[in-house]
Design goal:
With about 290 residues, the chain is an alpha+beta fold. It folds into two domains: about 140 residues, Gcn5-related N-acetyltransferase (GNAT) (Aminopeptidase, 3-Layer(aba) Sandwich); about 130 residues, Aminopeptidase. It is built from eight helices and 14 strands. Helix 4 links the parallel strand 4 and strand 5. Helix 2 packs across helix 3.
Amino acid sequence: MTIVAQKLRCREISEADIDAVADLLTRGFVGRPRDYWIRGLRRQAAREVPDGYPRFGHMLDCDGLPVGVLLLLYTARADGAETSIYCNLSSWYVEPAFRNYAPLLTKIAQKNAEVTYLNISPATWTWPIIEAQGFVPYCRGLFFSLPALSRIKPGMTVETVAADARTIEGLSSSEAELLTRHARYGCLSLICRTAGGDALPIILLPVRIRRGWIAPPAMQLIYCRDIADYVQCAGAIGRFLIRHGKISVLLDSNGAVPGLIGIYTEARGRKYFKGPHRPRLANLTDTELVLYGP
């Protein structure tokens, strides 16, 4: 192991490493094809990243080849008048022969005290490990809503945002860009307009909830300004989604959601954070779920 240690270093992933990193992740995550990783890494290569932060993440380098990787997705989010930095820790894998050095990746990745770190897809068996690292759950489960069973608000309309839309009536330029960017990632970006003329942005992502051979189609709520906005629009959204073969929308939640019909479960959906800002529910924008897919 001394020889290995002399050859080994931890460094940032560069664009030149994409192919080798995709190969490593394909070996490490059985069931995820190489195209899945290449698509996500290319999206990371093209997206905006806050100044001074890694574009892709970190890797354990042994003689120029990755033997361990931790993908990092940094995003600047507006929290009221303040802009805060969030980092989604994603897709941690280390080759078996180098597992003793795996903590180097997490130690380097979590070194910035001003950053709020997220883990949005922890395996159940890792929960005690994550909590021992100082992470706290901010979301304990999922609410499976059936929006078509909600009453439609009088005058409510739903429209789709195109991926090439330049402006959206009723939205700021930054929020309009958020919706069009996520439409390009394959999300369903919607504007719900109330009878009073308010424009309420909603972003949904197609997912499949697998239970054995059964995988009913559903949508995951990726973004709205407040859960109350989704509740207000649920009836209209439900009728809209039925035309596209979807009947359920999953919401990050810590319990049943007043005003919605559905089921809450803590069997899946737990999400953690560590850092100065507790993440709000209903904001999974620019995370692994969007850039890489469910």
